[in-house]
Amino acid sequence: MLDSYGRSIDYLRVSLTDRCNLRCIYCMPEEGISKRNHQDVLRFEEILKIVKGSASLGIKKIRYTGGEPLILKGIDELIYNTSQISTIEDISLTTNGILLYDMVPELKKAGLKRVNISLDTLNSEKYSYITRGGDLSKVIGAIDKCMALGIGPVKINVVLMKDFNDKEVGDFINLTKSMPISIRFIELMPIGEGEKLYKESALSTDTILEDYPNLIPISNRSDSTARLFKLKDGKGTVGLINPVSCKFCNRCNKIRLTPMGTIKPCLHSENEINIKEYIYNEELLIAALKKAITNKPLEHHLDKEKSSRSKKMMYQIGG
């Protein structure tokens, strides 16, 4: 389906929960969050109805995210049921990787095609610091297992932060020499907890091209949010995602579903459309989804305002 600006919207990103087993400093409050009542959060059967309704409007790609989606029981069944929708071509997952190692076989069997793993440092002590207690070895093991089982390409999401991991950029890039993975450097965004760090820690990914001129540009998909590069003879790729310094709104192809049953047509917009009340009425549900797509805004204003208009924290929206 086309939005009012002629963009083809074929991608639904579904945040299954706002809970997480880590407390990354740019995402989650240190004390965690209050647990919501069960009836306030979408059940898997309700999510599937929304996915099916979205598929009827041209959504072809589904990404399940959180919070941390793997803390939820039955996610493999959700992925399997999603894979049975004939027009869904791609099912992917964003995770911190802590629980992924033991779950990869069942997730792949269920129909998971790709996985994005959040990993901001290769140093164990720094990893424990930024996640407030995470175990780096579990994430590294999960990455290796995903590749061994043929889930791919495995994408590693690295939020670039000045004076924290900017000196590790070369180490991440060098992983792509021998491993068929995609390292994606993402600019820190002034949203939620990240807004507190933005002034001192924000760094444009363009600095990577200045420091590593040996990166070779490769062709991009027209709907890609990343500019792609590789090392000569490298097996993997390096992606640079510039949501603030070089926004890509003109080719944005996604809408987002929150755990509370609202559609966010834009990550940084304050506008949300509550579709929860329409879930059990297919006609009204599809009409609400059409409205969400049609009303997708032209662009965000991070480049001018240096702050997101969204009223939600990042863990409530999905990375």
Automatic annotation (TrEMBL):
S-adenosyl-L-methionine binds at residues 26, 67, 118, 189. It holds the Pfam family Radical_SAM. CDD domains: Radical_SAM, Twitch_MoaA. [4Fe-4S] cluster 1 binds at residues 20, 24, 27. It comes from the Bacteria. GTP binds at residues 13, 63, 94, 155, 254-256. It catalyses: GTP + AH2 + S-adenosyl-L-methionine = (8S)-3',8-cyclo-7,8-dihydroguanosine 5'-triphosphate + 5'-deoxyadenosine + L-methionine + A + H(+). This is GTP 3',8-cyclase. The gene is moaA.
